[in-house]
Specification:
The protein has 9 helices and 5 strands, in the order αββαββαβαααααα. It has 3 domains: 28 residues, no CATH class; 59 residues; 43 residues, no CATH class. It is mainly α. The longest helix is centred in the middle third of the chain and has 14 residues.
């Protein structure tokens, strides 16, 4: 079943005045402006204050997927876009640490701890594979000065490639 919105009789009385001759006269622009304002009041704006998708949204369907995390602060029900933007700006001025937090984070390589520290990153592996004097000299010294102690430390034998 489809339901349609029907205007209430009080809305018709605000829209126009009918005199006895049947002619319809539109009353002041004030009543038209009020009706337009009422019709746009159904639209609400939603603000997500923090997180990766922070900003002002014009529909809850757009904002809802980004509000499921526990640390996300959001508010809805702003009647005008200006109110929502003003609220968002106020939050940013009151909480500047939210915007600066990302810049203060240390680089990823300095954050590595525990077992992960022992696993080389792709950049480290690529650097080891790159041929340079220090790598070549180190490898040559290992091969020329090979002992059983080195085998125990390194865990492999040098293989002659032809």
């Amino acid at each position: 079943m489809k339901s349609t919105q029907q205007a209430k009789p009080s809305e018709f009385s605000q829209l126009s005045v009918v005199d006895k001759s049947g002619e319809e006269k539109i009353s002041e622009n004030k009543t038209i402006a009020e009706i337009i304002k009422k019709s746009t009041q159904d639209k609400k704006y939603y603000v997500i204050y923090n997180g990766p998708m922070k900003g002002v949204y014009d529909a809850w369907e757009k904002a809802a997927p980004f509000t499921h995390q526990s640390k996300i602060i959001h508010k809805g029900g702003f009647l005008t876009l200006e109110e929502a933007k003003k609220s968002f700006k106020e939050y940013e001025t009151l909480h500047p640490e939210q915007t600066l937090k990302r810049a203060d984070k240390a680089p990823i390589q300095t954050q590595r701890t525990g077992i992960i520290r022992n696993i080389p990153t792709r950049a480290e592996i690529k650097e080891k594979k790159r041929v340079c004097r220090s790598n070549l000299r180190e490898t040559l010294n290992i091969v020329l000065n090979w002992t059983e102690e080195k085998r125990a430390i390194l865990g492999y034998y040098p293989v002659a490639k032809e």
